[in-house]
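Q: I have two molecules that I believe assemble together. Could you output structure tokens for the complex as a whole instead of separate predictions?
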Amino acid sequence: MTDTVLTPASSASAASAPNVSRRRARFRHNLRRASIYLLAVVLSFWILLPIWLIVVMAFSTPDGVRAFPKPFFPSPVSTATLQFFINSEGILRSTLNSVIVAVLAVIISTALAVPAGYAIARFAFRGRDTVRLAILSVRAFPIVVLAVPLAVVFLRLGLFDQVYSLAMMHAALTLPTTILVVASVFMSLPYELEEAAQVFGCTRLQAFWRVVLPLAVPGIAASAVLTFVLSWNEVFAAILLTITNRTLPAQILYSLDKSSDPFKFAGGFFMLIPSMIFIFFIRRYLFNLWGQLNK
Amino acid sequence: MKTKYLPYLLLIPSLLYLILFFAYPMVESLQLAFRREGQFLVLRAEPSPDADATGTLELQTDVTVLDRQQLEETLANGRTRPIYWFQVEGVDAGGQTVQGWAIQTNLFIESRTESTTARVTGGQSTQEWTLDFVRRMLSDYRFGSALGTTLLLIILIVPLQFILAIIMALVLQAEIRGSSLFLYIFAIPLGISDLASGIVWYAIFTQRGFLNSFLVGSGLLQSPFIFIRAGNESWMILAIVIAEVWRATSIVMIIVVSGLQALPRDYVEAGQVFGANLWQRLRYIVLPLLAPSLQVALILRTILAFQVFAVVVAIAGREILTVLAYETYRWYDPQRYNNTNMAAVYAGFIMLLSLGISLFYLRAVRSQEEAAQAL
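A: Yes, here they are, computed for all two components at once.
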């Protein structure tokens, strides 16, 4: 962040001014700084307060969850609500399903995207722009539109209600973005490294495997995390494509209108936490990942 | 020579995968939405499968038996057995009374020699293109409210998200200390699912929730106000809008920030030198330069907003409010309507709206650029 769109009264005009007006400019400068800080803090509260409230609910006793008026701090702190949620029927199993689906989706989409991204980054070939455009245009394709026909096709092929068919669908949804991200990661690595490796006797494959790939791993890992989060959160395709092998969000959504508030709130917290942790780990790559949507 | 084909080889798996999961389902979707598979009994002019067709009857049609004829059927082992043809009369799908001969295997009849009524139980499979599913969607009593609610949500959510995202981006761009911490905080919702966000805001807006706890606790209200109930749709819409703005502003913020970073700073500095105030710099320099980024974000957010689903279910339940994506699920649900044709029509409608709005944005922004160039 090197730009200064908001910085007020440039120092050049203030420097030549007399002392009084410089002090006034300084005062105004500080006032503006303070108001920006205030705004930042208010916006942070807007994001964090609802998360804090669901944390309060998750760590209250079931009686505390039902209490009114609700406390804004858990009293007493208890894991009874979370335990009740985790021990509810189908939750452990669907959590396991969610993890399997997300891991499979990451593996499929990364395995396909690394060669494709490398091709887009390193080669000038006929149809490169067409391929890029095609990948760009399916990036924002509505899940709702794909899920219904895929469910019918899966049903016909006997793949319906399987965790791996849902994983394939999630991989397809993230593949376009993953290809573009991986391509940008490879583009950011100098080609000279590969050339040097080849000069020293590596084949092209060895140069890729030993020199380029290790350098690209952090960026690829970040996009894998993105895929994991998307798959972990995705609910529409999950509820359409599975019945007995539901993922966690599908299971929670399915039982939402039959479940008690402690179940809902603990479920909300349970779904929220992994995503928050993952976003923390990939925070350096946020612009590489989502900035890609811009190009 | 080898490198000539290498990029294609590297791309083929991904492209095949994308075709398999994007193009093929689209074709399938068209079939589901516009094609009806059915069984029809074709009536014949004579008691023979090769005779001219005189009409068709749908399965389960009740017919009257006018005449019958016993024929011999030759089996594979050379022996023969008696088989009946019946001359029947019934009303076809178009309401016309039709008459003709049908073989006994396609009819349910109590006594081959005496019954005067029968029911059609078999026939040949046919496929035909039809707009019936589309008509049924348009005349469905929930269609209007689903479309209305979805559009209302988009009109309310998208502008709010953009205003908030631009404010967040400008705060981050001001280079205050700790801005990387603020960036992380503003980006947290990127990882939050619509379902989780719906549950979080349900905890706030529900009758015994945090908002009522605050209002009653601080003495502003005597007793809790029930925000979420039938007849209180505007409060439910508001809760959904807040939940969506809370969750999905981050993605717009990230796009705007990366757009701002690519902005040539000379332009803004020139504006400062010429004495433009903050609003003027924003309105006449920053926002026009950001137009391409905003366009991308706008298309993305609107397409996603057409799919709003889990937030609505989590906050408003399944009955009081409905949106297009939920109708798709309702028709699909094997435990309820189990009608994939209708689900495909709804999905196709969402697709059409998404496509239309994207083209509209592309045109609108381009014509603005052209207008700017003409000036």
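A: One point stands out. The first strand of chain B starts at residue 35 and ends at 44.
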